[in-house]
Design goal:
Length: 283
């Protein structure tokens, strides 16, 4: 058994352990660049050393175009790792929330099940490697995210009930949300919160006007548009908060009507109600 670690700013960061059949140093062998970690023996090991000369002799049997693809992939992986490190700030909890969201999204794309859950050990190792964090900091941050009811850690699995909320939490913690100073007033009704979430998820990736708004044509929403026509004043609640604007008469009479959604405002209001109220409760 061996331990893989990295030295970051003079401090040792343990990344993972490798057992029988494990491989270390493969990327440097493939692309010839500097190794990014150190391997330390922690139990007796029998290892096969593959030298660069041996590898090059064998690689002559591999088509040049295939080796070119391998080197391109290694370069992209290293560059992605560098960009991720450069873009992340000192907020460990926000960074880990971001990575969990990315990892569950990647697993959803790669899996037929579509479940938003991860193997706990795998997720921790991946987070430690990307962020150069020790195990105890990752565990502590995961506990805080779990306390916010954004993940469920059980049976060595991490479940993400709502990936949109996890993404929003990361943005909120990092201070990226416009109008993040918005005050939480009277709690919104359940219907208003449902509409708020729906409008956020529908418009968050839309191309916005300069004022941060987008026009939403209701007949493109299918059956989900029916919640906007239910009895109650929840849509009016959002209009009073300047989240949406609409012609009420036209809206009730014409399901092909258009409502204008202020996406930046929606993000701010939703984050305020989801997380600032939790913060106050913790205090």
């Amino acid at each position: 058994k061996v331990k893989v670690y990295r030295t970051d700013k003079g401090q040792r960061v343990d990344l993972c352990e490798l057992g029988k059949g494990g491989i270390a140093g493969e990327m440097s062998l493939l692309d010839g660049r500097t190794r990014s970690a150190t391997v330390e023996v922690i139990e007796d090991v029998e290892a096969t050393v593959i030298t660069l000369d041996e590898f090059e002799k064998k690689s002559h049997q591999i088509p040049e175009w295939f080796m070119a693809i391998i080197k391109i992939l290694c370069t992209r992986l290293r560059d992605t790792d560098r960009r991720v490190r450069a873009s992340l700030d000192s907020d460990t909890v926000a960074n880990i929330a971001t990575l969990l969201s990315i990892m569950t999204n990647r697993k959803r794309e790669d899996s037929l099940s579509g479940n938003d859950e991860l193997d706990l050990k795998f997720a921790k190792n991946e987070i430690m490697e990307i962020l150069s964090l020790p195990h105890d900091r990752v565990t502590s941050a995961l506990k805080e995210i779990e306390e916010q009811q954004l993940v469920i850690v059980s049976n060595n699995r991490i479940q993400v009930p709502d990936r949109n909320s996890l993404e929003l939490f990361s943005m909120y913690k990092r201070g990226e949300i416009a109008e993040s100073t918005i005050e939480v007033g009277t709690p919104l009704s359940k219907e208003a919160m449902d509409v708020l979430r729906f409008l956020y998820e529908t418009t968050k990736n839309s191309k916005l006007e300069k004022n941060g708004s987008v026009d939403l044509q209701l007949n493109t929403l299918g059956e989900k548009a029916n919640m906007l026509f239910s009895s109650g004043d929840f849509l009016t609640e959002l209009a009073n908060m300047e989240v949406v604007t609409f012609d009420e008469k036209n809206l009730l009479e014409n399901k092909a009507a258009v409502i204008t959604v202020n996406v930046k405002k929606i993000t701010s209001v939703l984050a305020a109600f989801l997380f600032k109220s939790i913060d106050k409760g913790n205090q």
